[in-house]
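quick q for whoever's on today - can somebody do inverse folding on this one?? i tried earlier but teh output was garbage lol. tokens:
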């Protein structure tokens, strides 16, 4: 079984003091640590587990610059067989749809039975690229998958719903799944493991290799454009209301009325 996994390299902003860069459209990334997107680490682990059980190959795709090689090599060290980086100045500024077009066009050049992506990316949280890739390729897809079973050329996927509910969906291969965190336990990658794959080739495909035009990708091919980023304003803090329940309710009513919450 040939499995393709789409990954993304993202900055770790959990404990960082963020600042907006000079363009006003991105964060200042100097000094930030980067790593494989958390959701994608579960996707690559699931792909490797399936390969270990059923045989086949795992190919990893990522769209980004040369520094993306670090995340691709991590995937190779985990057990992926091949890595491909999609790099071109024309890709800069691509929204989710334009990104999906680039990934889908690359996937068309490869043999595959199953495509895995993370449910979403840590940096934007959109959760849209995976399902868009499925749509562009005309594939059945299941989103937010928490368990995968395979039998007789079919995937039985357990997917997370709101309110703690779960849905079980059965789809024929080829198909695309977006993987939720917690589906497995991604294996640890040692420094020695990274060194073993340090010289392994990472193929690089650009705009012409994929047969795309400049107007189809980047800002020109995007339906959404980022105008400005800004940090949230610091508020005055919470107001503690004291008194009997009926007194507090009256105060809440007056506050809502003064702030325009009631008409």
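ok took a stab at it. sequence:
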């Amino acid at each position: 079984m040939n499995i393709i996994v789409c990954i993304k390299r993202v900055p770790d902003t959990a404990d960082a003091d963020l600042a907006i860069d000079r363009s006003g459209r991105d964060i200042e990334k100097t000094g930030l640590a980067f790593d494989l997107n958390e959701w994608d680490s579960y996707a690559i682990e699931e792909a490797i587990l399936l390969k270990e059980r059923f045989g086949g190959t795992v190919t990893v795709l990522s769209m980004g610059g040369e520094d993306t090689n670090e995340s691709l090599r991590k995937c190779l060290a985990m057990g992926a067989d091949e890595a491909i980086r999609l790099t071109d100045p024309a890709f800069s500024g691509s929204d989710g749809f334009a990104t999906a077009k680039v990934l889908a066009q690359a996937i068309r050049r490869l043999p595959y039975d199953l495509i895995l992506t993370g449910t979403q990316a840590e940096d934007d949280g959109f959760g849209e690229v995976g399902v868009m890739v499925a749509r562009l390729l005309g594939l059945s897809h299941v989103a937010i998958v928490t368990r995968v079973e395979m039998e007789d050329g079919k995937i039985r996927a357990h997917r997370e719903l709101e309110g703690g509910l779960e849905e079980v969906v059965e789809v024929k291969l080829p198909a695309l799944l977006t993987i939720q965190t917690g589906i497995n336990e991604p294996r640890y990658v040692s420094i020695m493991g990274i060194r073993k794959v340090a010289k392994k080739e990472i193929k690089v495909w650009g705009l012409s290799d994929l047969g795309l035009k400049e107007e189809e990708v980047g800002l020109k091919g995007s339906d959404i454009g980022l105008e400005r980023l800004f940090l949230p304003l610091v508020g005055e803090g919470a107001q503690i209301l004291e008194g009997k329940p009926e007194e507090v309710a009256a105060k809440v009513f007056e506050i809502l009325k003064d702030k325009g919450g009631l008409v």
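fwiw The two ends are 61 Å apart (CA to CA). also Residues 2-216 form a domain with the Rossmann fold fold (CATH 3.40.50.620). so keep that in mind when u check it
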